[in-house]
Design goal:
This protein is α+β, with helices and mostly antiparallel strands. It has 26 helices and 31 strands. The strands form 9 sheets. It has a 4-stranded parallel beta sheet, with helices on one face. It has a 4-stranded antiparallel beta sheet with strand order 6-5-7-15. It is globular and about 105 Å long. It binds one RNA strand of 87 nucleotides through helix 7, strand 9, helix 10, strand 13 and helix 11.
Length: about 800
Amino acid sequence: MVRPFDVQAIETKWQDRWLHEGTYEVDNDDPRERYYALCMYPYPSGAAHQGHIRNYTFGDLIVRYQTMRGKAVLSPFGFDSFGLPAENAAIKAGSHPRIFTEARMAELRRSVERLGAVYDWRRLVVSHDPDYIKYSQTIFLAFLEAGLAYRAEAPVNWCPGCATVLANEQVLADGTCERSGDLVQRRNLEQWFFRITAYADELLHDLDALAWPERVKAMQRNWIGRSEGVEFDLTFAHDANRAIRVFTTRPDTGYGITYAVVAPEHPLLAALTTDAQRSEVEALVERATSASEIERTSSSDSGPGLSKRGAFTGSYVVNPFTGDPVPVYVADYVLGNYGTGAIMAVPGEDERDFAFARTYQLPVVATVERPPGFGDGAYVGDGAHINSGFLDGLGVADAKKAASAFLVERAHGVATVNYRLRDWLVSRQRFWGCPIPIVYCDHCGIVAVPLDELPVLAPDDVIMESSGQSPLATHAAFRDTTCPRCGEPARRETDTMDTFTDSSWYFLRYADPFTDGRPFDPEQVAKWMPVDQYIGGIEHAILHLLYARFYVKALVDIGLADGVNREPFARLFTQGMIRLDGSKMSKSKGNLISPERYFDRVGADALRVFHLFVGPPADNVDWTDQTEDVIDGCARFLDRVHRLATDAALVHRPDDPSVDVPLRRVVHHTIDRVTSDIDRWSFNTAVAALMELLNATAKWAREYGVAREVLNEAIDTLLKLLAPMAPHLSAELWEIRHPGEPSVHAQPWPTSDPHLTTEQLAVMVVQVNGKVRARLEVSPTIDDDDARDLALADPTIRTWIGDGEPTRVVVRAPRLVNVIV
RNA sequence: GCCCGGAUGGCGGAAUCGGCAGACGCGGAGGCCUCAAAAGCCUUUACUCGAGAGGGUGUGUGGGUUCAAGUCCCACUCCGGGCACCA
């Protein structure tokens, strides 16, 4: 595209100026009202892709807009620089992950600078920086001391082909390894956990007050999965002193218990299993525990209502409601790590139990009356209880209360709340992550590395080829140490932390990156938190956003973040994805349309305007054959702005209110539209409003000529409103028009004159039987009677009414009159 | 299966509180400028009947509420996303 100005020269000039003049650096003692704008810090994967560009375009618009609104805007940048891709690349090339990572960080930084996005680079935070590692480890040890970090044996995903432990994300839906294709196994290993479940209730409740997309909140609620019910005992039929403890949310269906099920991991399974059933039970347990949890719970032949695998233990327990003995089964549809790991089974009112009962020919008893026409199967709806003794006739809610009271009294029942949420497993058997600062001593046990010895850094000469354990475990000089407590030989922890731990507090460090000796100064951080606007991808709806919420609450509680808001992100915006041919545009799919090409061809401003204009920010963008044309259209819009702002030949003439006032109205109306559009994240209509302002100004100037002041007001307003969207061109044109004055980005955001935004004339629509038949110009303050008279007097309306009298006239002055005949 | 979104011209989308459907842009058509082209500018562009004035139809489908429905209610179809044995 041929442009009427030198795009590259202008964009480079302003990028240099913003960087070197520190225009968007902000200090912690800034007296202005504070605003914290934050884009999720990126994994450095090289030059920016269109998703980054979209993210940072939105973020930069907010930063520049809020700055013009007079606020001190915190706009930091950093890198989530630990992670597996760099480690894999290093293994492949026989190099070090740091080398890859830092090269890619430089590329990504270059991209965001070419975009014209502005940051306070002094506050740069990088996960693999020894300083950041030090405080990540400080926080880990503080969690340990507070009882929020603990060590326990847990099943992990083990890939025999890769001879390593995998993250859940690396295991495909069919239970195979994404790299080798081998079936992933479960292995029990000692792992570190964070006690996020201690915060389950608060994490759930605090969601209500957050200005987040409902969809994201719903996903988090779902993930936390709170359910209320009762725990009680099912006594062994052959030994009244022993019992299986079960959890249910449907105590009301207790008369329908026809069997019970324990998980394959259940501690009482061996005691329940009779000699006759032992081989069958052991076969089932072997099969269930060798599969990964993912394979066990989400393979294609599993799910509610589908076939179930199980085995009879040979034992019976007593239904506390009926006193009848019911058989105990072991089945893999009951999970060992939820509730009590055992259930009462009510096939009449539970789909899973029904499917199991079908397979093993167990009796089904209906305890809730079915609606008419209900066929075969489990009924989970409401209704009157039947076959249920003292519960008969009660609805589900009432029966639950009565049945709970019964269980409390007769079966050691306790009202209980269970959560789907599990504690956060943070150990990773990888090299490129933050080392866990722990030493294991034969005498002292688990010993924290003293704070003054932090950070614990991984040595550089580690062979990363995986041999089935953490790469650091093969490095004797790192692994073998002495106990900080007793001085005897000891062994270091060789696992690293999940990289989600790094992204759980980086935004706190941004607010005070200069403090030494502790992660941050709570007083400084409290002034900035919570983040006013957080912007990122929907893919982080659960994990990152839940972990970060947990971290902040925990840090406040253990005293590291005194006075900091317990919720980190007051407002969240999740942008749509960029898609090509229907699938997500990503490096791994190899279907990237590089932004660099557009920087070169039309410039950053045009690409930014495109991303703002193409559709609602929350929607996905389909990159099509037409997209290039739309980008050119955005460049054309900027060209027209340039021409209008620099055209000395525009016609001027003396003041003439009849022409000047209508244009001024458009200008002031546009101020209101753009302001409210930005506030409600409707950037596409904000750009449209500016296009309309441009069109109107050009047309007025061309067709009528406009007084110089009015033209100047229109153009200057356009530049100010455009400044957050197309910052380079706006700054350049402003400088040409106002040499020596402060930049357009230092100008206050324009405000509208109410006299010019209240309408002088309203167009009143007159309908006959709901169809528009006339439009009349009326005073905006016209009353209903006058509006009605005016409408009925209109000749066109009279012909439509004909001879008859209107049966009804609906008047909504000054907008509309509807005549019914 | 459950939960959450969504469906508007040839295309992306607009319509913020139930009151003019289609803002703005892309694409198309015609024109101006030019030796010619590019660029730029102007006009036009939901569908349909009509020479025109003007009329009719129209927001996934079928019902409903209302003077009035893209917008509210009920039922359904299709598309996208999330969760999926959590008792």
